[in-house]
Amino acid sequence: MSDRQLSLNAFLHDTGHHEASWRHPDSSVERAHDIDFYIELAQKAEAAKFDGIFFADIPGLWAATPFRPTAHLEPITRLAAIAARTERIGLIATASTTFYEPYNLARLFSGLDTLSRGRAGWNIVTTQSEAVARNFSLKELPGSEERYVRAQEFLDVVTKLWDSWEDDAVLADRESGHYFDPDKVHAIKHVGKHFQVEGALAAPRSPQGRPVYVQAGSSNDGRVFAARNAEAIFTAHQTLGDAKAFHDDIKTRARQFGRNPDHVKILPGISPFLGDTESEAKDLQQYVNSLTVPAYGLGQLEGLAGISLRHLELDEVVPTEFFAGSGNVLDNNRSRLQVVANIVERDRPTLRQLLHRLAGARGHNVVAGTPLQVADIISDWFHGGAADGFNVMPPLYPQLLDAFTEQVVPILQDRGIFRTEYAGSTLREHYGLPRPDSIYSDAGGPAATVASA
């Protein structure tokens, strides 16, 4: 077995990552809010020894439309239920630093990490939706730079809260009557631009010390934030070259922050249509594409680009200049818009073809082929320095997750780049990440201890 091991997450998304997957006759759209459905998917991923499962989240009726299931259950709650029915697989939930308070979020993820015995990960997002902002009493969304300033302070506060109990703070000493050592439980006394938090956290330090820090932004602000803080990064790239450039950039930036670049896992998304033959896989892709509603995909594309495309015919070639600039584009969209611009420039698709390309996984790499062909792509990116692993985004659940776990994973295992058994029990252990010491473990820590009763 190779010393360097691939990481694989299953990105769970109701009926699948293709926007028309719910219309497939074999989809599980009727089970979109059935917790047993997600438990079954998690158990399949765990049986295949995946590092983790991942839920995205936007706290609002995102892109409200009748053309796709959009009403998703809150992810931390779902993962708590899944934790009770799984044993090893990591549990990663998205939560926004713009719409949570640090103390609430710290309690939620500490609870998930404790309930799961050390399997929690937090996908840190700043959220760029004006519609969501209006759900939280905000008249307008702060700009990208301000959101990331808040996000950094938010993360600093959460880190202090998760560290506020030292690892040996709990005594449970029946004889003395002391449950914890007050000298090892710290009021964080944070006072900053956005937050004033007394602390300590209302629970002892969780099994991983801190849940794994995950991040998915590829904008300029997002890259700086990721290189400084993230331990796993989800990203979207269409080519090995683009992915390698991003991989190298993040690793370089991490070194500049004094971090070990091996402790920053770069995980591009891959959305595979699988068949016994390449022709069969492409036929499936074409059939699912035929189920799309163009008005839905067009609305998504226009929202990304910040321009109207309604004057184009579906079978008209998309002009390259439409995606050449970013003047009206939110900063967090610029990196994804560049993916679209590259597709338009490289492949010169019609509008219909472009909508189909984006329908599969919103700019992530959609591939159609045999299990061996998909395994070759994964191996090439892994060995080519473009990825430390992948966020697997099956276009159709559960069928294409089954195909991946049953047919692609064994090839990767035979090549010695993916585990056949779990070596550890926590998400940090799966990713090969160290368990962090509490920032207060030094006697000269930066905050006061909790006063004795």
Keyphrases for this structure?
453 residues, alpha/beta, TIM Barrel, 14 helices, globular
Write the layout of secondary structure elements.
Blueprint: E1 7-11, H1 35-47, E2 52-55, H2 75-83, E3 90-96, H3 102-115, E4 120-125, H4 130-133, H5 144-163, E5 170-173, E6 178-180, E7 190-191, E8 196-197, E9 212-215, H6 220-229, E10 232-235, H7 240-256, E11 265-274, H8 278-290, H9 294-305, H10 331-347, H11 351-361, E12 365-369, H12 371-383, E13 389-392, H13 399-414, H14 427-431
Helix pairs in contact: 2-3, 3-5, 6-7, 9-11, 12-13
Tell me what you see in this structure:
The chain has 14 helices and 13 strands. Helix 6 packs across helix 7 (240-256), helix 9 (294-305) crosses helix 11 and helix 12 (371-383) packs across helix 13 (399-414). Residues 326-332 have low confidence and may be disordered. It has helices spanning 35-47, 75-83, 102-115, 130-133, 144-163, 220-229, 240-256, 278-290, 294-305, 331-347, 351-361, 371-383, 399-414, 427-431, and strands spanning 7-11, 52-55, 90-96, 120-125, 170-173, 178-180, 190-191, 196-197, 212-215, 232-235, 265-274, 365-369, 389-392. It has a single domain (7-278, 365-431), classed as TIM Barrel (Alpha-Beta Barrel), CATH 3.20.20.30. 38% of the residues lie in helices and 13% in strands. By secondary structure, it is of the alpha/beta class. An eight-stranded parallel barrel has the order 1-2-3-4-9-10-11-13, surrounded by eight helices. The protein has a two-stranded antiparallel ribbon with strand order 5-6. A two-stranded antiparallel ribbon has the order 7-8.
